[in-house]
Specification:
- The chain is an alpha+beta fold and about 300 residues long.
- Helices cover about 30% and strands about 20% of the residues.
- The protein has six helices and nine strands.
- The N and C termini lie far apart (about 115 Å).
Length: about 300
Amino acid sequence: MTNHPAGGDDSRDAISRPAPTPELRSLPGRARPRKEVLRKVEEANAELRERLPSALWPLMVTEAEQYYRWRVQLDCGCVDEVLTLGEERLPSERQWRGPEHEWLQKGQMVCVHDDAPPAPYRDIAEWGERREVTFPADPVEPDDGMDPQTWAVLRHDEPHTSAFWKVTLACGHITDTIAPDLGWKPEDGPRLCSVKRVAEMTKEWEEYWASNPTEQSPREREHMRRMLSQRWPTPEPECRCYTCCFVHWIVAYQRVGWLVPRKAAPKRRQSPKPPSRAALQRRLQQAEAEAERLRSQLADLDQ
């Protein structure tokens, strides 16, 4: 599917920024105490062993001795610590997980900031798991900022159940979207409004934007116009991605060392240095003189 531009400040999300070439260098700050990191790894491994059959331990549990420690700096300026399997695998060459445990692009990590850009809209690429959620009746009084007339239309005066679907977006991230009703399935396709009703809605929205120019951001207006041009499909074919605005590239990394220090290799015994020719000649002369002395003593005994 084509991914629509979200408008506004999209250039700040990692999908729109080119992947940098990370460099190995010293980073500001200091690494966490090794014992603290080791304790957390051992606690996580102990929890895994409790939940998994022992036959799966070799496949699912990574021993602390296999981890190598790094400090990484992201393009937002933040410095974090990560672990890799071995010292040869660089942090920027592996994939890290997102908020929904989806795989991010190589060299990307999630870092949450209060000043993050608005969540961009992304097309839905794949429909996943479905679940039902039951909500209690809505309160009689509207939420702050909503007029009573609008709330009277939207309010559920009795408990209700909605179907939520886990969807994968065009950017590869995962989020939730709500179905039109409990019986809807992705193969049914979106439900569309009539051409007449879409024309009425388009006129109403354009008049509203003209009289309230600052009420909605350009991003939201463009989204609304896309939905109107597609006859207001339900569910919508695109969702806001709240992962994109928190994803950052690794720009630098620093080695910390093995989580469990390696034992020093035993020193090899060096072979003795061979004697020089002069030394061997002296030893030979001494041996010959000693032999001559012993022969003389034997001759005296024979006499």
